[in-house]
């Protein structure tokens, strides 16, 4: 059997379902010893079969029709086999929780309507952006989506920790009372850490779709601007981060809609636009 190398963005996979779990889990096979690619090629993706109907990923082969591609509506950043478990897609729930909470906080950061007290975000951050998103992330892990689980659980934790800052019981703001400079520096490091983490996730979406990539890329810039705003104590930079955060919220809603809207329930579908696929090896 002759194999030829394919990238994850290959147009030969255009018939693979985008964001829907396959019903052919029993067609997943271990690759026979004589069919396996060489050890040096195990990190790549190959096609095989008389009509290239099989895809080789590592030491397993799958029917091409059983794989689904990168899709923001499922938080799946690349070509992957269908999960074993049969659950509903939790990504739209997690994305919606993230989007709404980000929207509310970003409107405050942008000082929309002159608001200066952010405490209304506490309930939203605790229960929707925090708890609900965390549950959606655990759901993603059950569906074997490592990226989706990592992202949703992490940002669920972010919102819970952010809400804790404004809850008097934790005593966080009280500890910095009378020392505004220390508080700004502490928040700057807090947000900088999230910017670094988000940039790491952004790198993992470079083989996905345009809106999927933009979500994490612009979110990393949002965290960075908010971090700089606290370090420099510049309201203008913080407001810029707030405006960008509003854009991020709408992109998250778009990806959530992409995961919910189907031909069966809507006349308006979100069409994914794949990013150009170019192989790059850093290390």
From TrEMBL:
Signal peptide: none annotated. Keywords: Membrane, Transmembrane, Transmembrane helix. Residues 24-42 have a biased composition (Basic and acidic residues). PROSITE patterns: GPR1_FUN34_YAAH. GO terms for cellular component: plasma membrane. The chain crosses the membrane at residues 120-139, 146-167, 187-205, 212-232, 238-257. Pfam families: Gpr1_Fun34_YaaH. Residues 1-43 are annotated as: Disordered. It is found in: Membrane. InterPro entries: AceTr, Gpr1/Fun34/SatP-like, GPR1_FUN34_YAAH. GO terms for molecular function: acetate transmembrane transporter activity. It is a multi-pass membrane protein. Belongs to the acetate uptake transporter (AceTr) (TC 2.A.96) family. This is ATO2-like protein.
């Amino acid at each position: 059997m002759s194999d030829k190398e394919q990238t994850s963005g290959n147009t030969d996979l255009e018939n693979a379902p985008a964001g829907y779990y396959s019903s052919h889990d029993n067609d997943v096979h271990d690759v026979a010893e004589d069919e396996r690619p060489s050890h040096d090629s195990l990190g790549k993706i190959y096609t095989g079969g008389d009509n290239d109907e099989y895809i080789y990923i590592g030491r397993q082969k799958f029917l091409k029709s059983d794989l689904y591609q990168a899709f923001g509506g499922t938080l799946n950043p690349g070509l992957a086999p269908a999960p074993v478990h049969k659950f509903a897609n939790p990504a739209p729930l997690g994305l919606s929780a993230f989007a709404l909470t980000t929207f509310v906080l970003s409107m405050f950061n942008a000082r929309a309507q002159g608001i200066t007290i952010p405490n209304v975000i506490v309930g939203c951050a605790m229960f929707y952006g925090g708890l609900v998103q965390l549950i959606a992330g655990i759901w993603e892990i059950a569906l074997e989506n490592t990226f989706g689980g990592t992202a949703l659980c992490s940002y669920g934790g972010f919102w819970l920790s952010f809400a804790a800052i404004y809850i008097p019981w934790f005593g966080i703001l009280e500890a910095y009372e009378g020392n505004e400079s220390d508080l700004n520096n502490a928040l700057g490091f807090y947000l900088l850490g999230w910017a670094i983490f988000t940039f790491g996730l952004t790198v993992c979406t470079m083989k996905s779709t345009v809106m999927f990539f933009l979500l994490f890329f612009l979110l990393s810039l949002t965290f960075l601007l908010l971090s700089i705003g606290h370090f420099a104590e510049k309201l203008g930079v913080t407001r810029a981060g707030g405006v960008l955060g509003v854009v991020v919220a709408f992109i998250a809603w778009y990806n959530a809609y992409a995961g919910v809207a189907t031909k069966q329930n809507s006349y308006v579908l979100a069409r994914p636009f794949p990013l150009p696929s170019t192989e790059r090896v850093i290390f």
